[in-house]
């Protein structure tokens, strides 16, 4: 089966006027569709979206399963092996190597982006500017600047969005948020979050040897906007996460999952300071382990908060745990004036245990989710916004990635969120907004 990006393009469906309307109106679709008569929206809820997937290997194969109930019309991957496996499951879908060619094609309602981190923003921004709804994996972007631009673009074009932090749609994270907001542990002034990542190499330099590029991989397209460098199997597949040019390390990989509960429950917004300690961090790769401390100001009647991130197997001390119990590999801990809330193993619980025995959960105040993919698909068809839409996911990603900025810069940073700048170190601007390789641009113009 051909993988030539200049071969046939996805066919335009002529079965529904809505799809013809989509391809004809481009970026004006969002506002017009959301403002359409209720009868039209109800009819659309029973239609199948024309969905394209950019990146179908690894996590992309899971995302493909998540939207398989819709009409999968196009598949894109720079790795022929991944593309071939996905095409075998969806033989009617057109195939592409270059997502730019895919996104120039008509008849696509929505796009799922599951590329390495460094390509998230470029692909998603191009899709949004073409009026396509977007589901993008976490972290939403590779840089803080990109996250801000993704948030603004989603608003401007009025399209349905969702970031791939699936835990945001769980019942238990809603319980956690409700418990914290109900005052179960009193005002919260400190939070810890931790992960066993990285489970890939970090803290090393760039490979020196130059093996041949495999026939099944388009290396130039894989690099995308990243600086040019020779191919090496140390990058693709999966292990790219540890290299700054492509990934965002353990913090970027897991922060949007694990710090989500605190960001949501406490409405943290942007930190005003970030500092870090680590081992092995260098210009090429993220550290072997790190500890990052975020400082958040008081918000209304909520006190200032210090949130500490731990990775590489490091965890906070929790003396209230019953004897013989240990913290799981990934979790978060809220420390309030009246007790602690531990959120791990897919459930919240209060500490010490006596607090939990006497606790009556508060009434539900947050709507329960119909499912992470289902939320997005419903939003694409005119339903409510998905829970981790870019208005939420963009600021969450900004917060997470500021930890990497502190790690790479090597000293405490003071952050102006509104101005998107490090006030005590203007030279850090290169880490806030990265440069793209020639031929690539966030705006779509080169």
Account of the protein in words:
With 446 residues, this protein is an alpha/beta fold. It has helices at 17-25, 29-34, 38-44, 59-66, 80-89, 99-103, 120-129, 144-157, 171-181, 219-223, 249-258, 260-265, 353-357, 372-380, 390-409, 429-432; strands spanning 50-54, 71-76, 94-96, 110-113, 133-136, 161-163, 188-194, 273-279, 289-296, 305-310, 331-336, 339-344, 347-351, 413-416, 421-422. Strands 13-12-11-7-10-9-8-14-15 form a nine-stranded mixed sheet. A six-stranded parallel sheet has the order 3-2-1-4-5-6, sandwiched between helices. β2 (71-76), α5 and β3 form a beta-alpha-beta unit. α7 (120-129) packs parallel to α8 and α8 packs antiparallel against α15. The longest helix is centred in the C-terminal third of the chain and has 20 residues, at 390-409. The protein starts with 16 loop residues before the first helix and ends in a 14-residue tail after the last helix.
Strand order, largest beta sheet? 13-12-11-7-10-9-8-14-15
Return residue spans where pLDDT drops below 50 for at least 5 consecutive residues.
Answer: 1-43
- The oligomeric status of these chains comes to single chain
- H/I helix tally: 16
- Sheet with most strands: 9 strands, mixed
- Percentage of helical residues? 25-40%
What is the total tally of β strands? 15
Distance, first to last CA = 32 Å
Average pLDDT figure:
90
What is the global morphology? Answer: globular
Q: Round the Cα radius of gyration to an integer and report it.
A: 22 Å
Backbone structural class: alpha/beta
- Residue fraction in strands: 15-25%
